[in-house]
Amino acid sequence: MADENTNEVVAPVEGAEATAPTEGRGPGRGGRGNRGGGDRNRGERGGRGRRDDRRGGNRDEDQGEELIEKLVHINRVSKTVKGGKRFGFAALVVVGDGKGRAGFGHGKAREVPEAISKATAAAKKAMVRVPLKEGRTLHHDGLGHFGAGKVTVRSAPAGTGIIAGGPMRAVFESLGVADVVTKSNGTSNPYNMIRATFAALGEQTSPKSVAQRRGKKVADLLRRGGASADVAQADAEAIAE
To answer: Strands, DSSP E only, in the chain?
Structure first.
């Protein structure tokens, strides 16, 4: 092996040719590979973390408060197409906050979880407020009618419980009612029963709202029932809404 400047022959070092190229290629490849792989791994880990944080924030913003979700009914339908059958699902969901607000919604999809999520989102958008007496029962009796469904709802004393069946029970449980007596006449279709129940709840009024509409005090309305002035005043103060 000759040197370019002195033209002297330099004896090769034993194993130099075998180790030098390997050392030159090895660290270079390993360094580039490690740096690239490390950057890619860090980027993937960082990206996943950021995406998860964003999804968590959206869920918190959408929910806002803890809600009670009740799955009332799931219906499966099939459509015969070329090559077989195509199935679809429809879900009916009732949502409430347990403090006087409730709503219902239905959704359709090819899969059950997606149908339930669509129904839940529709129910959250359609929530209505119902005035409750002492936070546990209705202020007065009511009738609801939708299609062939007819329901009767009645206020009840403490300790009665929820005397209702099927879809109606889900409505009152999500609404936060503890004592109520109901009766359903006519169809047993859950969709019509739910709509009839919400029609009856939509007619509920409280003494406070009636007094404001008529320009009177709540105590004046309660005294017309035969109660004394002191008792009427105490009952009026106990009415929250």
So the answer is: 68-81, 84-96, 101-109, 128-129, 142-146, 149-155, 162-163, 180-186
Pair of tokens at residue 205: 């009024």
Q: If you average pLDDT over residues 34-47, what whole number do you get?
A: 47
pTM for this prediction: 0.65
Q: Could you give the 3-state DSSP secondary structure of residue 64? A: coil
Contact 211, 218 (CB under 8 A): yes
Pairwise CA distance, residues 218 & 226, whole Å: 14
Burial of 77 (0-12, 13-18, 19+ CB in 10 A): exposed
- For the chain, give the mean pLDDT: 76
The reported pLDDT for the residue numbered 145 is: 94
Walk across the sheet containing 84-96 and list its strands: 68-81, 84-96, 101-109, 128-129
Would the pLDDT of 59 be above 70?
A: no
- Cβ proximity of 105 and 123 under 8 Å: yes
DSSP 3-state helix, strand, coil percentages of the chain (rounded to 5)? 45, 25, 30
Which single residue is written with the structure tokens 């009914």? Answer: 73
- What 234-237 contacts at long range (C-beta under 8 Å, 24+ apart), as own/partner pairs, is 236/207
Sequence-ordered list of residues with C-beta below 8 angstroms from that of 32, at least 6 positions apart, any chain = none
Q: 184 is written with which tokens?
A: 């359903």
Give the domains, in start order, of the chain with CATH numbers: 68-128 (3.30.160.20), 130-238 (3.30.230.10)
Could you give phi then psi for residue 149, rounded to 5 degrees?
A: -95, 130
Quick one: average pLDDT of 216-223? 67
**Please, is 63 exposed, middle or buried when counting C-beta atoms within 10 Å of its C-beta (0-12, 13-18, 19+)?**
exposed
